[in-house]
Design brief:
The chain is an alpha/beta fold. 46% of the residues lie in helices and 10% in strands. The protein has a 5-stranded mixed sheet. A two-stranded parallel ribbon has the order 1-2. The protein binds fe (ii) ion.
Amino acid sequence: MLQQLKEAAKHGLAAGTDHQPERPDWTIDQGWDAYTPEEHAVWKTLFERQSRLLPGRACDEFVRGMLDLPIGPEQIPNFEQLSDALSKRTGWQVVAVPGLVPDDVFFEHLANRRFPAGHFIRKPHELDYLEEPDVFHDVFGHVPMLMNPVIADYIQAYGKGGLRAKHLGVLEKLARVYWYTVEFGLVKQADGLRIYGAGIASSATETVFSVEDPSPNRLGFELERVMRTHYRIDDFQETYFVLDNLDQLLDLAHIDFGPVYARVANASDLEPGVVLASDSVIARGTGRYHAARGKKASE
Ligand SMILES: [Fe+2]
């Protein structure tokens, strides 16, 4: 089941072109009126489950963003209303897509402050099963952080950088940065390590695992280190990279990645669970969780 959740967080990295909608930017109408009571009920179940787990685990910015958005337990949010609130704060919008979209379409949206969100929701009997990012992952997980000006700039820069990285043939390296920040990032706050990554914030089990389980490594975020590091697509992460504060991402939004790619090209890739002597180790994991499950695929 976790495998599908991880796939859901991939966003555009593995999209096909089988179901291309009519519009060239792959957007569709959300079709809010067509949601059934059962679909709203799935949202409510997921919303309430995460709302119980996230206090004391999600970062302050996530909590604040959620409070300032028209998001509640009763109904799947309306993207137009979300976009109204978001655009006033950070200039972002939420646009509906049918599922994963091709890389260049995804980057083009981000570069223009449009967040593509799956319009569908998972089935009631598959609460932890997803093949593509649905409205709960995309809206509950991502949109609160887009209310934060630093994250807003960072994700736009990722969109611009993604188009360039694809052209340079280094998309794999950049995708790891997105993965270990936007999807699975942790940040230090006054009262401990907190979640800001959407892949964690939208997953009940990883919400607890990422900040409390002794198994994973928690290492200080370092750009070149992260670019070299494979990640788990089929399970919890073996390593979480931790920011000192969200402002660290501002630097990433403004530096030229060209020289960084050149340096990383000469360095070896690293397995997800490895700890280097040069790492800033916040907590060295026991590795027990993944050892018990055996080795699985990573990217
Ligand atoms: Fe995501």
